[in-house]
Recover the amino acids of this structure.
């Protein structure tokens, strides 16, 4: 009987559950809409979905070994609680306790942590033991693998790489501090920088790209126009790369990773982005002269990383 591990990707819009085998393959997948307004409904919907997938797995002859969760928020991996999640009202949600009747081992971690684990076990960083992953979306998430093991910090509340201070007393970050990497290197920050540059330069090709409507600016605007040679778009991209690159240099010095994996929406720029970041790190000796090279890679698992990574919390 083949063993499977359930991975739960808890998102603000949907909850995705997958049955994953020891090779990282998703054998069963199902989803339900997230009810962020009512915690009781949120938990009930999740449990029903898990029960449905468990039943289907057993009917197909699989042996369910446990359940892992990847959550976009603050968790307590010791108590098994979701302490805070942006799109769900309520704090200190007793997830493990609520699901105890399923009689399965349950592990919970931050979504960026499980994405890092997924990429290290089955994705872009497979075969490497020291890995940093950054997810570049609305915020900047971070995951760290040290000597082949996921580093989560005390109670699973560490590895918040997006909240290292990049610029003292800089821009306000959503976490409440000033100058965080997230305030300069997130997709939200890229949109802000793009709009500011466009407002200052009405002759930029970025206006044509978004039909002269600044509300149509996206994460693609500056990058796609930079590829076509627009000097103002190039300035936006170069500035963005320098912010992100300085953050990566800090992580190189702290963790000395073999590879750095870039995920999230901006990672869709592929080698155009990774090559620029590689060059930025190379020119600065990866932190200091004689420092070893850290290879910049683009995440491979995309939308499946959450499910695979959550399940990987239990895969030996």
């Amino acid at each position: 009987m083949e063993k499977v591990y359930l991975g739960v990707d808890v998102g603000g819009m949907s909850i995705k559950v997958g049955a994953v085998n020891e090779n990282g393959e998703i054998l069963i997948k199902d989803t339900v809409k997230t009810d962020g307004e009512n915690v009781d409904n949120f938990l009930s919907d999740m449990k029903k979905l898990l029960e449905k997938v468990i039943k289907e797995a057993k009917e197909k002859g699989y042996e369910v070994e446990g359940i892992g969760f990847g959550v976009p928020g603050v968790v307590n991996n010791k108590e098994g609680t979701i302490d805070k999640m942006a799109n769900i009202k309520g704090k200190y949600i007793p997830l493990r306790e609520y699901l105890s009747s399923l009689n399965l081992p349950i592990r919970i971690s931050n979504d960026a942590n499980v994405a890092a684990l997924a990429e290290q076990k089955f994705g872009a960083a497979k075969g490497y033991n020291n890995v940093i992953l950054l997810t570049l979306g609305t915020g900047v998430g971070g995951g760290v693998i040290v000597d082949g093991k996921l580093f989560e910090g005390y109670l699973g509340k560490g590895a918040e790489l997006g909240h290292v201070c990049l610029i003292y007393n800089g821009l306000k970050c959503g976490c409440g501090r000033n100058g965080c990497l997230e305030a300069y290197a997130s997709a939200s920050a890229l949109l802000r920088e793009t709009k500011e540059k466009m407002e200052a330069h009405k002759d930029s090709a970025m206006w044509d790209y978004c039909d002269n409507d600044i509300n149509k600016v996206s994460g693609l605007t500056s990058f796609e126009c930079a590829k076509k040679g627009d000097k103002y778009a190039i300035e936006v991209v170069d500035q963005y790369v320098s912010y992100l690159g300085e953050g990566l240099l800090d992580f190189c010095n702290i963790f000395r990773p073999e590879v750095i994996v870039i995920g999230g929406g901006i990672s869709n720029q592929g080698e155009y982005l990774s090559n620029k970041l590689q060059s930025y790190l190379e020119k600065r000796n990866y932190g200091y002269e004689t420092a070893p090279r850290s290879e910049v890679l683009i995440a491979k698992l995309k939308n499946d990383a959450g499910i695979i990574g959550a399940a990987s919390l239990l895969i030996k």
Residues 231-255 form the longest helix (25 residues).
